[in-house]
Specification:
CATH topology of the largest domain: Rossmann fold
Number of strands: 6
CATH superfamily of the largest domain: Response regulator
Strand order of the largest sheet: 2-1-3-4-5-6
Shape: globular
Distance between the termini: 35 Å
Number of domains: 2
CATH class of the largest domain: Alpha Beta
Length: 216
């Protein structure tokens, strides 16, 4: 039996995914989460065969969740579900260890095909994405300036997203189980590394990177 964990902040999407995958006799959904910070603990608890992961989630974005899951639970295959067809998003997902990238406008059969592909050790990109387009993006990216986001620690990235979502230092401390002073230190460090000065700068940065979205 193939076990799956669903991670998406929209209940209707999770319901559709559950019905889709559980129509397959050898698939079983073992859990659902709607917040990015909940994903890694749930993966570590259940060790699902496949994680179906939304790219933009509250608490912690899908790319950072992906990075942590692949580092801590490498046996769990990750299928990204996203509205973004931009090569930059696809490349980052593949670079961080995603086995498949499926656009949310795709047919349900694409999701099932992606799951079976990653279980077989293959990579899957839904149409109209293509390996050639991704390679073209990679070649362009290799000549670009280094991205300071890569210099942030895992905790700084978590504080970045929660701050961009509008949480204050006390709220962030409670969400991450750390002290307010520690949050302030991480916030100061990430502002320095990213060259940000104000909260408005931070929100704009989060939107530009796709870490948060306008309807959050």
């Amino acid at each position: 039996m193939v076990t799956l964990l669903l991670a998406d902040d929209h209940a209707v999407v999770r319901l559709g995914l559950r019905r889709l995958v559980e129509n397959e006799p050898d698939f079983r959904v073992v859990s659902e989460v709607d917040d990015g910070l909940q994903v890694l603990p749930e993966v570590e608890r259940l060790h699902p065969d496949v994680l179906l992961l939304d790219l933009v989630m509250p608490g912690l974005n899908g790319l950072e969740v992906l990075r942590q899951v692949r580092k801590r639970c490498p046996k769990t295959h990750v299928v990204i579900l996203s509205m973004h067809a931009n090569e930059a998003y696809v490349f980052e997902a593949l670079r961080n260890g995603a086995g498949a990238y499926v656009l949310k406008g795709s047919n349900g059969s694409d999701v099932l095909e992606a799951v079976r592909a990653v279980l077989a050790g293959r990579r899957y990109l839904s149409s109209p994405l293509s390996e050639r387009a991704i390679q073209t993006y990679v070649e362009k990216a290799e000549g670009a300036e280094p991205d300071p986001y890569g210099d942030l620690t895992t905790r700084e990235r978590e504080v970045l997203q929660l701050s961009a979502e509008g949480h204050n230092n006390s709220q962030i401390a409670a969400r991450l189980f750390i002290s307010r002073r520690t949050v302030e230190t991480h916030r100061a460090n990430l502002f320095l590394k990213l060259g940000l000065r104000t909260q408005t700068d931070l929100v704009r940065y989060g939107l530009r990177r796709g870490i948060i979205r306008l309807d959050e």
